[in-house]
Amino acid sequence: MTPCIDRPSRRDCCAALAMLLLAGCATTGRTSRLAPDDEEQALRAAGIGLYELSAGRLAQVHAGRSELQAFGRLLAEHHETANASLLSLLQSRGVEPPRAMPAWLELRLARLRPGGGAGFDQHFVQVAGLEDHERLLAEYATSASTVQDAGLRAWFASQLPALRSHLAVARSLAAAPAA
User: Fold this and answer.
1) Is the full-model pTM beyond 0.85?
2) How far apart (Å, rounded) are the C-alpha atoms in residues 172 and 26?
3) How many CB atoms lie within 10 A of CB 101?
4) What is the CATH number of domain 35-174?
5) How large is the average pLDDT for residues 145-156?
């Protein structure tokens, strides 16, 4: 015959579960008022914004064509403003904004850093101008319709016209003959 083991009461189970949940909250320090998926998309956008700002500044310094330097200035100015508004929104929702771009974007930025001149110009337009903006436009359009937080949804939607404009400029730079 096996010994009888008392089953814990419902109250004991609830108390144990509450203690585990509280312990989990205490260890993560999570104070966010965003749904986890919203927070993930917002933090990803903040990291991408830091990348776009850095890429724009890189073009201002290394581009051989004045049009590409101007495009870099446009990217840097837009993303600096957009990042500031997103960071403010994140802070108002109790989310700690990133202090640096994610490692995968650091690597992408590093691949944009070859020497100046025509080689840089063509590579920058292809990667940062066309590829990045096509992907970013699709990602932000999806986020603008899927995030739950109304303010965050509006932020994503507000970025779409500028991203479309950036992509149009990149397409014109790609089509223009190198000087």
Assistant:
1) no
2) 52
3) 20
4) 1.20.1260.10
5) 97
Start-to-end C-alpha separation, the chain: 92
- For residues 20 and 70, the model is more confident at 70
> Tokens 């397409």 sit at which residue?
171
| CA atoms of 163 and 79, how far apart (whole Å) | 10
List pLDDT tens digits, range 26-76.
334 557 899 999 999 999 999 999 999 999 999 999 998 999 999 999 999
* Cα 78 from Cα 58, distance rounded (Å): 15
Neighbours of 117 (CB within 10 A): 13
Per-residue pLDDT, averaged over 137-150, amounts to: 96
| Separation of alpha carbons 108 and 50, rounded Å | 12
Question: What is the DSSP-derived secondary structure letter of residue 7?
Answer: P
Q: Which two tokens stand for residue 26?
A: 């205490």
Torsion angle in degrees (nearest 10) through CA of 149, 151, 155, 158: 120
Distance CA 168, CA 174 (A): 10
Q: What's the gap between Cα 72 and its chain centre?
A: 18
Domain boundaries, the chain: 35-174
